[in-house]
């Protein structure tokens, strides 16, 4: 356990600067998006009231309340608001590959030291896996924390007669991008991120195959992905998307969950086997 | 210890924030309603559900779909995707009951109109057509007819499958009703042609369960063109209720802005027009056949912008009309939602937001044989503190009797 924590901390610190940079960027751009959006709504409300000689109440009767989601989707604000989320996801995906390959870079490669450590090599694998997961969950938590802040900004800019507060849960549940990032139910959170973890394990397996067998490894990766595609097609062959399928929904869902466990478990076992037996320095 | 700070902070931040969020999210639940009896026979609403919209003033995305039963309320959009796909409806439907009893037999069988059940057997008829279409419009293409018959006593299944040639422009085939006459399964199917216009063509298919002989008989509708001219549409509707054993099918055909009704003898396949002489206007109303009666549900504007309703029955044997329900004092507001179950009519009025005369969402069940109101019930919020507000925020709009 001690070795694992040390390795985890080592991996975390290696990416900490870029990660904190991503967090700062997300906070700055999202808060800016809400500020710009709220001011834009205020300007257009003032303009409409001036042109039509409306009171605040009359304007409200015509347009209804302004809410946080109206600001986020206003003009280019969506890019400003959701851009850092997509950027963070992309960076994390790229780093999921780089977290292995960076060990082999340079003259005095880190991998020599890591693989010759007097501890189980599985610690190395799990340290990298947990690092990526922690980074992902950290960004999810940041998004949850940001919504109340964004509400405060909107509330401070817009008059109370025009603005209506929205529950954090409702906002996250009904915003398309965010409801995938922060699924509304815990069971879905487990399912979505379970799928994500399976994907990450598959990616790590492919990387370790390439590191173990080098050029021959590319061929093995193709075979491995073909096998996964075959397994993943089973629910569709069972009529997953057909209403008159021979199989009942419970059987298809059970098969899907079973396949996820088989793919994740099988890939994890093979990755650890490669790390212990095939990768040499 | 300081060197672990980044990791420790991130772990605590992620776990506490995500954990708190999901605890909070699980506590934010919309009100719970129950279908509560005001008067009558409670057994009439066992296993049924009323669907509606909960409109919360506080929520931006205010409208939530709600399924209300006598026990509780389900909000389908508040459930996870897995839970939704496992429990689509809030009660046990007829299909659910069959699945419980005949798990293997029921695989892949989802069209309630395709079933016939009696004490000895459960039969299912299905028909599908090739989606490919030839450029040669006069060519024929294949449709696949499959029949499964479960012998309940022996628990064995007889399967009959055959190909039937249909016109090249047939895009879909729907099984509408299945009856049993002297060991013959008699099935009413609609073939939908989409060559020039949309034409629904009724056909009868007979399958002799002993000899496995299959016959299909196109129903020539008297006075109706068999083929659509450019842009012509013909819509056909069967007024019989699913799973009722009948010897007469009642069809309505809409064509060229005219509606006609036909009576089809299940045994002989004979088709005869139903004239409703002097009462032709009845065809414009909701029509449901049960036993030897056809019931017409007529909406009629009454005072206070509300809509009252009248039910008139037509006896296929005596050819007599009878007004069963009329000028009821029930407030059904501007829209009504109804469902027929055998000789019972279930009816509720929509609130249609802003109708100040509306007294509240109530379900009424009438016995159409005795013309009596047998049940009156209301969707009641179980939270005493906000009861009146919760009830004002619920708008019922559909009755699910679990028959389909």
Automatic annotation (TrEMBL), chain A:
This is Uncharacterized protein. The chain crosses the membrane at residues 20-42, 78-101, 122-146, 190-209, 221-240, 252-275. It comes from Paenibacillus etheri. Keywords: Membrane, Transmembrane, Transmembrane helix.
From TrEMBL, chain B:
It comes from the Bacteria. This is Uncharacterized protein. The lineage of its organism: Bacteria, Bacillati, Bacillota, Bacilli, Bacillales.
